[in-house]
Amino acid sequence: MAFLHLFLQGLETAPACLVSVERTEGSVPRERGAWMAVFDRQVVGTIGGGHVEFQAIAEARRRLGGAGGPPVLRHALGPSLGQCCGGVMHLRFEGVGAEDRDALARRLAPRRDPVALFGGGHVGQALARVLAPLPFQLTWIDSRDGIFPQDAPQDVACEHSDPVQAAVPGLAPGARVLIMSFSHAEDLDVVAACLRRQRERGDLPFIGLIGSRSKWATFRHRLQERGFTEAELAQVTCPIGVPGIAGKAPEVIAVAVAAQLLQTLPPDGQDGV
Q1: If both were cysteines, with which of 67, 73, 91, 162 could 143 make a disulfide (CB 3.0 to 4.6 Å apart)?
Q2: Which has the minimum average pLDDT: 35-44, 70-79, 111-120, 185-194?
């Protein structure tokens, strides 16, 4: 979203050439739909870097200077470009100006999958910052007043809910849920509310609970007493975060959890990185 904002802001004073990935074959550095905006003295965004991007910038500026050319150019990522990905990128070149701002804002806005974060403590605050530039739409929920920071990331929806689990039925379909409140009792109630929603609708692809294996063992017993089955309990991930990251600092946990959430997103169909 930051790149898009800078691009649209730049169009207020100067035209640009929009370079977008129209189609790909094989291993490539960016997916279809990736873009960069080339101005006379500035470049916003990226199509993957390297020599292919360098050539694309030069071609875009040639067109800004009035030169013509086909709308789509093919670039093979081989020895001639000093790259060894082996794939092919088809790049579209479009001249755009201030009159195109609204249409570009709609067209280039990235897909953002919903995430519900329960808990405004140290890890919650670190996680909100880490998730801000990623392809997620965050709803941040806590039962306490005044818990959210004044400088919460832009586009984050901060929501007060008391009791906190009352927010679960209204979560967006497809929301990934992260549970890390200040209270184990609240955590338990949110997990139970998520499992009830799963029983009724089955539309929460990830339910993650912060804590140790011993915490989850205690929760499992209490949730079983509330009538939840083994199959239902298997839908909860605890501990959370990608394996192999041992640090306990809030920022470290936040990175590990964000990486795990990214693993739940559908693949873009590319085999390159």
Answers
A1: 162
A2: 70-79
Q: Please check whether residues 44 and 127 belong to one and the same domain.
A: no
Q: Does residue 117 register a pLDDT over 50? A: yes
Residues 6 or more apart whose Cβ sits within 8 Å of residue 231: none
- Among 201, 159, 176, 179, smallest CA distance to 262 is for 176
- pLDDT tens by residue, 51-73: 899 999 999 999 999 999 999 99
145 & 242 share domain: yes
What's the confidence (pLDDT) of residue 269?
Answer: 41
Same-domain pairing of 91 and 139: no
Average the pLDDT over 103-131 and give the result. 94
Q: Of 58, 85, 108, which residue sits at a domain end? A: 108
Tell me which residue range forms the domain holding 143.
113-263
Instruction: Give the residue, 110 or 11, on which the prediction is more confident.
Output: 11
- Dihedral angle sign, alpha carbons of residues 37, 71, 26, 112: positive
Q: What is the pTM of this model?
A: 0.80
